[in-house]
Every structure is written in structure tokens, then in C-alpha cells.
Amino acid sequence: MANSKYLCIEDAIERVGDKELVHEMLTMLDSSIENDWLEFENYLNTNQYAQAANILHGMKGTIPIFSDNKTEEIMQKADALLRVVDNELVLKKTMEELSVHVQGFIADLKQWVIKQN
Known about the structure:
Distance between the termini: 14 Å
Order of helices and strands: HHHHHH
CATH architecture: Up-down Bundle
Radius of gyration: 14 Å
Helix content: over 70%
Number of domains: 1
């Protein structure tokens, strides 16, 4: 998908080495990512940072396979900040940036799925 900003399928195929496997993984990710993100946001919004970090850790293990480098970087930063919340302002700013990237990734993924059908 040449017009995807956050979803980098060609890079994922190169990393994984199997186009069909990447497509299967993306289809599975599409079925769970929105619920994972909502769960993450719910924990974040109720200041349950340890639980939010656990959800993000799972997403961090999957999304970077398919995402741009900036999304991966912000996920790493957010994960670290959630584990040691010592500056609420920095955490809030980072979570806002993370939200832009993850929601952009989800939108790109949805468009990819639509094009596959």
C-alpha cells in the first residue's frame, strides 16, 4: 500500500520472509487490535498504568513488525514511561503521540483489509 503512512507491508514481508504469512498475521491483528487499543485506553484513562503497560507490551510485540519506525519508537517510549510514571505531563504528551500513531496504524490496516476483500 503505497499511500499508507503507518502500515509498511513491504517492509514486513522483507522482515518475515513470507508474504502469505504476513497477510495472515495482518488479518489476525485486524480482528483484535481495536479491542486491545480500547482496553489500553480504558486503563490509561483510569490511571491504571501497570495494566495499560501490560496491554501495550503485547501490542509492542506485534505492531512494530508491520509499522513505520516512528510508531515503533513511540511505542517503546510509551512502554518505558508507563512502567515508571514520574512525570504526568511527559506521559500525557507521549500518550497523545502514541494515540495518533496507533490510530493511524489501525486506519491503514482497515484500509488494507478492505482492499483484500
